[in-house]
Each structure stands twice: as structure tokens, then as C-alpha cells.
Specification:
With 90 residues, this protein is mostly helical. It contains three helices and no strands. The N and C termini lie far apart (85 Å).
Length: 90
């Protein structure tokens, strides 16, 4: 049984980058524009997937909180009056 593997996001990005490099070497502006668009599309697709996966991992770990939320909960709410001395530079 042969398994067809679809190209990974990394290989799609690397392929688009190789096309862009080839277009740059040949100084073909139309090919550069097309390769840049292809690279941007591949990068955007991969980025969206990474963000979705990161969001899913945060939802799966209910015990973890963002740094700002942890800081707020661990902060001391007690207010203390203190004396201070102002130092002036001469």
C-alpha cells in the first residue's frame, strides 16, 4: 500500500523560495513578482496553521494562564505607606 504524502508547509515554502531565487538570478521582474506572491501565500498559510495550533494547545492546557493573568493573581494588593527622601543632583 503506497501512501501519498502531501507536501509539508516547510517544503512548499522552500520551493517558493527557490523559485524566487531563480527569478532573482535571471532578473525577470514578472517571475520575481509571481514567486514573491507564491512565497507570501505559502508563508501566510503556514503562519495561520501555527497560530491555530498554538491556540488549540492553550485551550487544552486549562491550568496554564498567560503571563499577564498570572502576574495579576500573584501581585500583592496591599498598599503600604513609605517615607522617601528626594535626592537632587548638584
Amino acid at each position: 500500500m503506497a501512501i501519498k504524502s502531501r507536501p509539508t508547509k516547510k517544503s512548499v515554502i522552500e520551493s517558493a523560495l527557490a523559485e524566487l531565487k531563480d527569478a532573482h538570478k535571471s532578473q525577470n521582474i514578472d517571475a520575481i513578482d509571481a514567486a514573491t506572491a507564491k512565497l507570501n501565500t505559502a508563508w501566510q498559510t503556514a503562519s495561520e496553521e501555527m497560530y491555530k495550533n498554538a491556540g488549540a494547545q492553550e485551550q487544552q492546557q486549562p491550568g496554564t494562564e498567560s503571563g499577564a493573568q498570572q502576574e495579576q493573581k500573584s501581585g500583592n494588593d496591599e498598599v503600604t505607606d513609605v517615607d522617601f527622601e528626594e535626592v537632587k543632583d548638584k
